[in-house]
Design a protein that fits this description.
Oligomer: homodimer
CATH superfamily of chain A: NADH Oxidase
CATH architecture of chain A: 3-Layer(aba) Sandwich
Radius of gyration of chain A: 16 Å
Number of domains of chain A: 1
CATH topology of chain A: NADH Oxidase
Helix content of chain A: 25-40%
Strand content of chain A: 15-25%
Number of strands of chain A: 5
Chain lengths: 168, 168
């Protein structure tokens, strides 16, 4: 899939078929994320893969978007490793770049994904659920599956002209 | 260009030919950025385009990567609009996703770009240089041009297996 086409046609997919996502697909999505740029190339991203029914249900219980996580055959929790971070703003931006690569890769693979941020209110519980150390700060959960038939609405965007605050 | 190929072959380009970047190309890069996802679809990104020689020199003087900004035919300063922000971490992540789209779009257009974060130490001076309001928080400057002949080294990445902290 062409990169500009991917950028312009990607949308948040919140409803999935029952079909599984292969381990190869999951690893490709994570690999794509890992090729984002980061300040000083510190690569602060870390990933936990959740497919197990019990853990998936427990994870789903930590967000108001329970139905999405419960329905997705796989969710990938993305963490920032405080042990390698050097600047909160820049490291959080790098994680955003990583997440965007993951969403684009999922879309290119014919999968559908959604970036869930609301679950950050339960960051400590998510870390505890997976038995992870305190240095790992939850950044987002990406739910992934094969898009169910039907509409996956996409919110519009402001015209570019409205976003340009100066031209010199 | 295929999206996965773009993700895996993109690199930071810091040396450029003298050839100009067209206004259409600049607007395509900004449009690609604007199609990133953002929490509540708040689209917090704002852009200033810098091509003018005098402003470009002044901008270059605000970073230790002066030679890069001075050499690039265009630089795009990316801001976050505090008036629409709702959560620093999530908004900074959204800006990171926007920046990654911009870098991928530049790469797909045959251009080369680099994400400059060090200039954030001069955020106030950059805002003053462009006469912008205090609500606009500098997030990065993206320098863009046509890649000069020669190597554009790309730092390696950790193997995916080292980035996976749990699998359930």
């Amino acid at each position: 899939m062409d990169v500009l086409e991917a950028i312009y046609t990607r949308r948040s997919v919140r409803q999935y078929t029952d079909e599984l996502v292969s381990r190869e697909e999951i690893l490709e999505i994570i690999k794509a994320g890992s090729w984002a740029p980061s300040g000083l190339n510190n690569q602060p991203w870390r990933f936990a893969i959740v497919r197990d029914g019990e853990k998936r249900e427990a994870l789903a219980g930590l967000t108001k978007y329970r139905h999405i996580v419960a329905a997705a055959p796989v969710s990938i929790a993305v963490f920032c490793d405080r042990a390698v971070m050097y600047n909160d703003t820049k490291d959080h931006q790098a994680i955003g770049a990583c997440l965007q690569n993951m969403l684009l890769a999922a879309h290119a693979l014919g999968l559908g994904a959604v970036w869930l941020g609301e679950i950050l209110k339960s960051a400590d519980e998510v870390r505890d659920l997976f038995g992870l150390p305190k240095e790992l700060e939850l950044m987002a959960v990406v739910a992934v599956g094969r898009p169910a038939a039907g509409a996956h609405p996409r919110p519009g965007r402001k015209p570019v002209a409205e976003l340009i605050v100066g031209e010199f």
